[in-house]
Amino acid sequence: MLDSPTAKMAPVTEQPSQTELYLSIENLWKAFGDFIALKNIALDLNEREFVCFLGPSGCGKTTLLRAIAGLDLPTKGTVMQEGKDVTNLPPSERDFGIVFQSYALFPNLTIEKNIAFGLENTGRSKSEIAVRVAELLQLVGLPEQGQKYPAQLSGGQQQRIALARAIATNPGLLLLDEPLSALDAKVRVHLRHEIKELQRKLGVTTVMVTHDQEEALAMADRVVVMNHGVIEQIGTPTEIYRQPANLFVADFIGEMNQIPAVAGASETVVIGGQELKSQAHKFNAGETVVAAIRPEDIIPHGDGARSPGAPDVVKTPENAFDVEIAEMEFLGSFWRCRLRHEIFGEAELITDLSINAVRRLGLTEGVSFKIELPQDRLMAFEPAGAE
Question: What are the residue boundaries of the ABC transporter domain, all occurrences included (predicted)?
Answer without folding.
Answer: 23-253
